[in-house]
Amino acid sequence: MYQPTATEENYLKTIYHLSNTGIKSVNTSSIATSMETTAASVTDMLRKLSDKEWINYEKYKGVKITRKGEKVALGIIRKHRLWEVFLTNILDFEWDEVHHMAEELEHVSSEELIKRLDTFLGHPKFDPHGDPIPDQTGKMESHDKFNLSAGEAGEKYIITGVTDHSTLFLKHLRKYGLLPGVTVSIAEIMDYDKSMLVKVNKDKFHLSLEVSKNILIKKYVSSK
Amino acid sequence: MYQPTATEENYLKTIYHLSNTGIKSVNTSSIATSMETTAASVTDMLRKLSDKEWINYEKYKGVKITRKGEKVALGIIRKHRLWEVFLTNILDFEWDEVHHMAEELEHVSSEELIKRLDTFLGHPKFDPHGDPIPDQTGKMESHDKFNLSAGEAGEKYIITGVTDHSTLFLKHLRKYGLLPGVTVSIAEIMDYDKSMLVKVNKDKFHLSLEVSKNILIKKYVSSK
DNA sequence: TACTATTTTTAGATTTGTCTAAATTTAATA
DNA sequence: TATTAAATTTAGACAAATCTAAAAATAGTA
Ligand SMILES: [Mn+2]
Ligand SMILES: [Mn+2]
Ligand SMILES: [Mn+2]
Ligand SMILES: [Mn+2]
Question: How far is B140 from B133, CA to CA, in rounded Å?
Fold first, then answer.
């Protein structure tokens, strides 16, 4: 139908993400905050996105993304995450360095390029942060993820991702080797502040609730 | 100093190329033709590029690129050609398919990304079309290239590049396996139309002057 | 319910890059 | 050299995306 501009792609991606963050209705100001722009600019853009049928928009009533808009958003998210895999696995960037570059690369338009990149990378299912990569049709894995802060003392878990994607947080976790795929056992949970003592390989760390709240895990199972 | 926009980068790249195509002074209309835009638009942009000291521009007198502007242009050309190597060598695209994608990828801004891509690719000196890749300082190899049409019957040559970069021409050459690095011997040159019979491996082809004029070669030397 | 605070939209500008049409300058030629 | 042709620049407009400030609508609260 229409060919979205890079800006339109960014709006749709943001609206898609906000729609899936438990936030009831996606309103103008939440979009403005996420996009680091003004509510007035968002209103302007919402009208354009609505004209092109990527969202349903009624003045003052908030926004709902359409199936069409979702398809655009998932395409961009797919590109973003595949490029992130490329940057970490092939060019050896750290997981806290790749997001900014992927923000640019995700707008390179060739579908064939991303198809071949996907093949070259071995059809990865998750990006370096543990986020699932949509396939060409938009489908992706959704392993039930829960927070390390909800884990129990004495139990063993595998890190599957993070809820805070900020460079600061990712860098912090890297210092402890707390990356997706790594096995963590909870040695002790402090009653006073809910901080925890965890074991990773031979090392023991003390993690604040602030940190454990933002780490996603699944139960450890020895078979694969 | 200033951060060039993608459009400014494209203008500078075009001006740089025109400056090195033997065309005496780079004039407004030649830029307009190359960029597929109007002379009026070019005039507007020349003023901007001049303000930012990437070109020297005097009304009605044409354009000369500055050292600063050349540095910008060479940076873009480096990115363009490295991405072309990536697309052909790593993602298995054909040499006639990569230019369009590289036109987008060349504007991805990270210097560190291109540095690592260069390392990953093994610091290639030439792109898939035989064009030299500038290094980080802007230096590049300039093998003296001459045209196959100026070759002599009975002699053996190695293809080093092309002067026509159109998809049509590149596709045509691919059909015959006439790619950079391939050895060609001229069996016969027809007096009437200067067309030639060439041998590539076991195959013999008849090449029109139109074609041989656009193929760049160097003398064959058995040692390396 | 009435008033106030917050959110959202509108109005009016600005920047970047583009265009067409008209005016101006330079080049070509009779 | 005078006149015509071609190239270039200017003038005025437009689309995309943004902004600030003001107006309008909705939500929160006494
Ligand atoms: Mn990211
Ligand atoms: Mn983006
Ligand atoms: Mn190219
Ligand atoms: Mn090339």
Answer: 6
Q: Is the CB of B60 under 7 A from strand C?
A: yes
pLDDT (tens digit per residue) in A58-72: 999 999 999 999 999
Tell whether A27 is covered by a domain. Answer: yes
- Asked if B109's CB is within 8 angstroms of A104's CB, the reply is yes
Domain boundary among A43, A65, A87: A65
Residue A144 predicted with pLDDT over 80: no
What's the mean pLDDT when you consider all of chain B?
95
Q: Rounded to whole angstroms, how far apart are CA atoms B12 and B30? A: 13
Per-residue pLDDT at B23 exceeds 70? no
In angstroms, the CA of A5 and the C1' of C11 are apart by 26
Over residues A30-81, the pLDDT tens digits come to 999 999 999 999 999 999 999 999 999 999 999 999 999 999 999 999 999 9
CB atoms within 10 A of CB B34: 18
Number of domains in chain B: 2
Whole-Å CA distances, B93 to A57, A58, A117, B119: 42, 45, 11, 20
Q: How far is the CA of A201 from the C1' of D14 (A)?
A: 63
Tell me which residue has tokens 């949509």.
A134
Distance A106 CA to ligand 4 centre (A): 23
Q: State the CATH number of the domain containing residue A21.
A: 1.10.10.10
Residue A109 located in a structural domain: no
Question: Which of B65, B86, B112 represents a domain boundary (last residue)?
Answer: B65
Q: Which ligand sits closest to the CA of B100?
A: 3
Domain that holds residue B18: 6-65
B185 touches strand C (CB under 7 A): no
